## 1
Amino acid sequence: MSRNTTSILIIYTGGTIGMIKNPDTGALESFNFDHLLNHVPELKEFKVAIDAITFNPPIDSSDMEPAMWSRIVTIIDSNYDKYDGFVILHGTDTMSFTASALSFMLEDLMKPVILTGSQLPIGALRTDGKENLITAIEIAASKHPDGTPVVPEVCVFFNDKLMRGNRTTKINSESFGAFGSNNYPLLATAGTDIQFFPNNIKRYLPGLKLKAHHEYNSNIIIFSLFPGIQKEVVEKLLGASELKGVIFRTFGAGNAPQKKWLIDALSKATAEGKIIINITQCAGGSVHMERYETGLQLLQAGVISGKDSTVEAALTKLMYLLGTGLPVEEIRRLMSQDIAGEITL
């Protein structure tokens, strides 16, 4: 490729976008990514050099694990100087988890990493995969007049919307509008033109070098409150010796029932060095534990506010920080601080 050619690396991990229907059984089966050009011939018209790396075998997103996030990080890190941007094709079920994890594992990222996929296979008549893929590539290749990337961060592009990756959540299993970003505005919208919103996009900082992280600790649980929750179950859950952290999904602005046994169990767990992060069960909004007595009691028990983080961002951030080997108190501090655009300060 010439020195002036923009180059994009597509990383196909699996998912609906890379499947075709078996004519005999009607079941969806993965197909070789090289066949993509047959379904999206428009890619040949791009004034962009496109290469592809395919997971073999492709992975259903429900099987995605931290080790595979590390694999994606390795691919990006080893190809970082060769390409101007990266497009990751991924199943929708865990796309927000992967996007969130990559935002922490790719420290000082200054190139676009755009995750996309589809609700219908790329070969289907009404597929959303074709537009998602084409536009994701166009966004990953977009540059300012000075040659710097327009979107130097990890994003999810879906249904004409570009969102910060660690702010997304899958909100619909059937609609083409599968993802939402309730606590952070869109980075761009795609219509007849792609309209970027620069004030919402991470600022490009020249001179930064990518720091790729591979360590993680997944001895974490997501624990949701509900009316009628039982003491014995909670105590056994929080008392597990292997447990390192808890994403604690509370009511409203971070509230929990005023039950002494619950506060005692939380206090004991934090005293043992377990890190408990308070995330609201609401689709949007932030945790404010100081607002009501039902939240203040959690602060006094050592529970940390995750503020307006998504569950996906809080979980992957805690896995990442636990993997660094930092002291518990430092991890607790960082969990309520913004380190990759995941929290609104």
## 2
Amino acid sequence: MKIRVKLIPQNTYQEINIKKGSTVIDLLRTIHRTPDSVIVLKNKTPLPVDDIILDNQELSIIQVASGG
């Protein structure tokens, strides 16, 4: 399957190939990110890590920062 991912704040797009039935956590592993360092959005709605990704889906990945 092929999906399109927008990386924020870099404001870049990537076409990523993943297996059919892959979840958000599988996607994050593919792009070497951890679930506690990003938020994955579909149509401005956050997705849980166990959500299944569909072919040709377009997602946004926002890198989060924390600190004090």
## 3
Amino acid sequence: MTKEDTSERVVRFLIDHASCTDCASAYHSEDVHVLAHRDERVWELAAVCHNCYTLSLIRAVIKPRDHEVAATATARRSLHELTDAEARRFRRLTPLVEDDVLDVASFLSGFDGDFRGLFGSEPDES
């Protein structure tokens, strides 16, 4: 299914099942605007009532179908699990303690966001 198909389904569902919170008017397709979406699951929408002009911001979370859940879980596991070498490396590291967290918090409170200055080099030009 393409993003356009999913977008149309999300907007259609909203039009069919939601109404203005102020005046209870039903939304029309031209009243609903997709602002953003992530992973085809989380959609950010804006709906403007054609009757009273109330703006509603809506977050829609699409529940995946069972076969999509299994495929996504497998893909996520392979992308985010540590390799054996990474796991050994992290097991050898000293665990973080409260002072480590406080040190980072102190550093970040004064950090100006200049990563180039922090690391002292320009990124590679590939």
## 4
Amino acid sequence: MISGIIVKILSIVLLIVVAVVLILGIGTLFKGGETSKKYSNKLMQLRVLLQFIAIILLVVFAYYFKN
């Protein structure tokens, strides 16, 4: 029971983190200038990495808790 709650909380946290990085990346991209050149691509690369980690963990959770 406890582990199911932890998985739900961890899943929500992962999705929120990906969303925050996405919003920061888009905001930096629209801001333009030197900030955009320096951070926008790095933030989007971080988003892709975080999405990969989130998807892998969600698939593992689904497999583990398939009952």
